[in-house]
Amino acid sequence: MRKYIAEFVGTFVLVLVACGVAVVTNANIVATSLAFGLVIVAMAYSIGNVSGCHINPAVSFAMLVTKKMSVKDFLGYVVSQVLGAISGAGVLSILFESSTALGANGYGAGNYASNVGIALLIEVILTFIFVLAILGVTSKKENNAVSGIVIGLTLTLVHLLGIPFTGTSVNPARSLGPALFQGGDALSQVWVFIVAPLVGAFLAGMFYRFVIAKEK
User: How far is Cα of residue 36 from the mean position of the Cα atoms in its chain?
Assistant: First the structure.
């Protein structure tokens, strides 16, 4: 239960702070990218020793695929993450009551991802990169001291490219929470930001299992 509570709190903070920064800066690429990365760093060194600080169903799915997590824990983590994201988005909806934007992801007019195909492709690729970095850096005990920084910087990196395309998801919970409150296109398109990160995480998990781990 301590792990699930930690995942709830971590995902709540991620959505509240990072999506909040996206709203107040009008999705400024650098500011928003840093916000997501810095939240990961802060949470990694806060709750990492309790739950591993996944705060992302895609990360938990990769851990399941690589047999680093049981099905029971996976389900518990995902429920906690989704509830944390919804709670964070709920607080954002109160704070920004006059705003229709809550940092939700999307594609179409005004984005480089002009259609669903490009949105799926970019999210799969970015999630693959992000999750592979997590699997790699956490596989060695000697990296424990710096793993939070590496993961946070990697999330910042993928956001720098992904924001002009979709706002960058790479995290189904982070996308679902704001979409539920924002509604409209954000809600109708949210399936893309659930499916694509899970596919990217699966591919990263398979690559790690059969290329990196096998080589080791």
Answer: 9
54 three-class SS: coil
Nearest to 20 by CA among 5, 6, 31: 31
| pTM of the full structure | 0.94
Provide the token pair at 155.
Answer: 């999330």
Task: Enter the tokens of residue 139.
Answer: 């596989």
Q: Which domains does the chain have, with CATH numbers?
A: 2-215 (1.20.1080.10)
d(CA 112, CA 110): 7
- Alpha-carbon 110 to chain mean position: 22
The pLDDT value recorded for residue 99 is: 66
Sign for the CA dihedral angle at 185, 22, 157, 143 comes to negative
Q: Find the mean pLDDT for residues 2-24.
A: 97
* 3 state DSSP class of 215: helix
Residue 69 near residue 63, CB atoms below 8 Å: yes
Q: What is the pLDDT of residues 97-153, one digit of tens each?
A: 866 789 999 999 889 999 999 999 999 999 999 999 999 999 888 888 899 999 999
Cα–Cα distance for residue pair 112/114, rounded to 1 Å: 6
Distance, CA of 66 to CA of 132 (rounded, Å): 11
Average pLDDT of the segment spanning 156-162: 98
CA distance 199 to 197: 5
Quick one: CA dihedral 77, 150, 204, 164, positive or negative? Answer: positive
